Amino acid sequence: MEAFGLLLHGFAVLLTGKTLVLMMIGLVLGIFVGVLPGLGGPNGVAILLPLTFTMDPTSAIVMLSCIYWGALFGGAITSILFNIPGEAWSVATTFDGYPMAQQGRAAEALTAAFTSSFIGSLVAVLLITFLAPMISSFALRFGPPEFFAVYLLTFCSFVGLGREARHKTVISMSLGLLLAGIGMDTVSGQLRMTFGTAELLRGINFLVAVIGLFGISEILLTMEERLALRGHAAHISLRVVLSVWRDLPRYWVTLLRSSFIGCWLGITPGGAIAASFMGYNLAKRFAKEPESFGKGRIEGVFAPETAAHASGTSALLPMLALGIPGSGTAAILLGGLMVWGLNPGPLLFVEHKDFVWGLIASMYLGNVVGLVLVLTTVPVFASILRVPFAAVAPMIVVSCAIGAYAIQNAMFDIWLMLGFGVVGYVFKKIGIPLAPFTLALVLGNRAEDAFRLSMIGSGGDLKVFWSNGLVGSITTLALLLLFWPLIEKLLARAGRPRRARPAPL
Amino acid sequence: MTDTDLEIVVEDPTAPEEDSPSLVGTRTVEIVVSIALLLLAVTLGYDNWRTGISWDSTGPEPGYFPFYLSVILAGGSLYGLIAALTSQDRTSDTFVTRAQARRVLAVFVPTLLFCLATQFLGLYVASFLLIAGFMRAIGKIALWKSLLTAFAFTAIMFVTFDVAFDVIMPKGPLEAVLGR
């Protein structure tokens, strides 16, 4: 097993005192971010990214990914104790987690949530360890047409499979791609869409947009709601942990099913949110007594948490292997790679072995350390919620501003961040999804370059996207996904007359 | 073995009233956003058309790719506009109630002032003013607590970014006096 040897090398890279300290800092910050309402994984990673600018890439990614794991763990704490999902993917955890807390089984529910998160991530990391190198070495043979086809597939699957109204996804995506094009054109050196302003020469920085869209807008949205909360304080004893773990083998089907769903939805841009609901619903459907769900059943905690974490982790697979993020947070990590001077894509596995395997090793270690950390420190983190929001909100605003400014040392970026904050607030309220926008903004330039290079190669013939079996099938699949809702309708119509229906049309 | 002896309760003194009247409907906002996006698409599309959207000897001109994206954006927002205009239910959902809008503005306006202050006073002074002012005025937290928290947070940020990580933030007259 070549992967195994490289993984061991990754652990060797990782096991230095400095990296371990950064890992702990990352995890604590992440749990903090996950517990606070109005801040989540993507925001936390985006805001804390500037801290890592002066670090070497490996330490930087270890700390950032640990923030992400921490946020995933932290989301479960508030869902179970307060019935407030800290993250959208923790919503399904509240269904059974909060009733359990009400029955005085908070410690049990929390242990179940943390343990299943850990299992979900572990399955996904195993998948990454063995699959990512294979995919990336396969992708080394990709030329510009293949890459453009893969980008197209990513974008089309958002439109076709997304749950939002299609035109809203299209708007969000084309806007992101357009804004990515602002500034100097990388091929010809000409200026585009700058309207003569010097500030737009640099283009719109992806991370500035993300900090505004996710950080500032989330503060505005949170303030809109009633912030009073009432919940339980819990403290987890070793006895409870052991008793939950002893029962764990009984739920292996649920755990495995949810891990599988999570991995699948994480790799395709469906996201952790869909995965957690799907995991919960399937566990309910296959259960012997489905009506007991929602009343404090431990399986109702296992299923969504495993799926959410498996999906959150496996979203990093396409990012590492192909340079295409599977989620908003993965997109931000990808933005980080570029800041540290790494070029995302299949070459990463060849050129930056230390970095890639250090990251993968940190996924293993980060999850183990994270599990121990959350199990022991839950009371501390739950009490963070006592801090009034009026104190937290301005601190988040300041952190966002620091983050936005630090990326390019530009005051203009702070204003841009504010603008994106307002845009994000309005978009979220009228249901324009932000994930496609984020992805389009970070991939825009590379998608355009791939398109133009393929066009130059073929002399402007669109047939280049069907020039061989591989690129042809990816492109066809992309178009199929784009028109999937239509196809589904047609199939349904074609299938209907067979049933007893008197008159056609 | 109950773990619920301890309850955590957080009150929200300035919570928005539940029965506050609607300030603006979702449908209206959708129409406004669609029109704004349409205008943006036309502006960007025109600029790209001027840059060049055809082919030259080296392949597609710089405006080619973004021009067609603006066409797609225009199409999407036009569809959104028509869908919102022709939508059947006139009694659309509330986009924001009066009380909610007040609360959102209570964060937005200080944030705006903070950005303005950052431009002239530097980030650290601005952040001290924002945190102290916000905690005192919006959160109704005791003045000494507000000032102390603001000072501590700003100091931690300064030490973390400017000193430890060498990430330099915008400075103003105060830092100039102190010689940083």
What does this protein structure show overall?
The complex is a heterodimer of chains A (505) and B (180). In chain A, 72% of the residues lie in helices and 2% in strands. Chain A has helices at 2-14, 17-35, 41-48, 57-82, 91-102, 106-139, 144-161, 166-180, 206-224, 238-247, 252-267, 271-286, 299-314, 316-322, 328-339, 348-351, 353-382, 389-408, 411-430, 435-458, 469-482, 484-495; strands at 183-184, 191-192, 229-232. Chain A has 22 helices and three strands. Chain A starts with a helix and ends in a 10-residue tail after the last helix. In chain A, a hairpin with a 6-residue loop joins strand 1 and strand 2. Chain A is an all-alpha fold. Chain A has a two-stranded antiparallel ribbon. With 180 residues, chain B is mainly alpha-helical. Chain B has two domains: 23-95; 97-178, no CATH class. In chain B, 64% of the residues lie in helices and 9% in strands. Chain B has six helices and five strands; from the N terminus they run E-E-H-E-E-H-E-H-H-H-H. Chain B has helices spanning 26-51, 64-85, 98-121, 123-137, 143-164, 173-178; strands spanning 7-10, 22-25, 55-56, 59-60, 94-97. Chain B has a two-stranded antiparallel sheet. A two-stranded antiparallel sheet of chain B has the order 3-4. Chain B is flat, with a radius of gyration of 25 Å. Classes of the chains: A mainly alpha (505), B mainly alpha (180). Strand 3 of chain A pairs antiparallel with strand 1 of chain B.
Topology readout:
The complex is a heterodimer of chains A (505) and B (180).
Chain A: H1 2-14, H2 17-35, H3 41-48, H4 57-82, H5 91-102, H6 106-139, H7 144-161, H8 166-180, E1 183-184, E2 191-192, H9 206-224, E3 229-232, H10 238-247, H11 252-267, H12 271-286, H13 299-314, H14 316-322, H15 328-339, H16 348-351, H17 353-382, H18 389-408, H19 411-430, H20 435-458, H21 469-482, H22 484-495
Antiparallel strand pairs in A: 1-2
Chain B: E1 7-10, E2 22-25, H1 26-51, E3 55-56, E4 59-60, H2 64-85, E5 94-97, H3 98-121, H4 123-137, H5 143-164, H6 173-178
